Recover the amino acids of this structure.
């Protein structure tokens, strides 16, 4: 089964103060119905809906989409760790609204300073108690904090977006990428092999990312890498079909490991128990 482990859908926000905040503007409507067309065309069996940057903690659309089809869709919510009561708000979105993950975003400038601070540890502990997968939108500069959090919360699954935005020009020898590879010593840390166009210096098929992915595969193993499309942004960068074909074309993985990357690992992480009969 193919599982898209990283995509975004949203309702248009025509009054958003940052209409160019992302590749596809928040002023554009990107409904689940549009993504379902791609699921059908490419035989994607399950998908993880990740709250995008601009709606803040208004996770309602994602939560409702996933709750209507929980065997095929999982939602990853955003909770602002800077605000009082963050742990309780996470519990609401998980227990009451069915979200299966939490997204933290130290790459967002206003959220960077609090990442990993002791006053945010209750949020991490609640995520552990709830069994929520913590998705982290991070860069290389945030990886020491990720390591400290992984040490403190060994029961919390941590999933890094977009290979933590490595410096593709510097390659596998870059200190930041070495810090990423070092996270492999924590068995609950996994990586999304996604969004190459955010850090590659080349056009598709992003040949300068090939060695990065192979190094991550060698250190993390085949069971801790997940593919995600980054829909809808991928539509303006490579197209969905080419993004889906990229791992098989470029990474040189054995067939059974490619299957884990393209679905098995995400299914195990977000759907750990089989659906009820």
């Amino acid at each position: 089964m193919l599982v898209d482990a990283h995509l975004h859908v949203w309702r248009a926000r025509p009054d958003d103060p940052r209409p160019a905040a992302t590749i596809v503007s928040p002023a554009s409507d990107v409904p689940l119905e549009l993504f379902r067309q791609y699921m059908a065309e490419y035989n994607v069996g399950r998908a993880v809906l990740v709250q995008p940057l601009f709606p803040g903690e208004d996770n309602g659309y994602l939560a409702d989409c996933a709750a209507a089809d929980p065997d095929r869709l999982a939602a990853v919510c955003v909770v602002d760790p800077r605000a009082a009561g963050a742990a309780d708000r996470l519990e609401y979105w998980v227990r009451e609204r069915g979200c299966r993950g939490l997204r933290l975003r130290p790459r967002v400038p206003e959220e960077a300073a609090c990442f990993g601070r002791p006053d945010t540890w209750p949020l991490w502990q609640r995520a552990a108690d709830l069994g929520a997968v913590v998705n982290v939108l991070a860069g290389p500069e945030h990886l020491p904090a990720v390591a400290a959090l992984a040490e403190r919360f060994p029961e919390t699954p941590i999933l890094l977006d977009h290979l933590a935005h490595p410096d593709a020009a510097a390659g596998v020898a870059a200190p930041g990428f070495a810090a990423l590879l070092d996270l492999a010593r924590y068995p609950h840390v996994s990586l999304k092999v996604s969004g190459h166009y955010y850090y590659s210096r080349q056009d598709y098929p992003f040949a300068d990312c090939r060695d990065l992915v192979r190094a991550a595969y060698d250190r993390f193993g085949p069971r801790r890498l997940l593919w995600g499309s980054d829909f809808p942004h991928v539509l303006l960068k490579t197209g969905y079909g080419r993004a889906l074909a990229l791992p098989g074309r470029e990474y040189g993985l054995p067939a059974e490991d490619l299957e884990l990357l393209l679905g098995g690992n995400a299914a195990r992480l977000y759907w750990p128990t089989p659906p009820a009969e």
Q: What stands out?
A: The beta strands are 2-7, 44-50, 73-78, 101-104, 133-136, 158-160, 189-193, 225-227. The chain has a mean pLDDT of 95. Residues 103 and 135 are 5 Å apart (CA to CA). Residues 255-270 form the longest helix (16 residues).
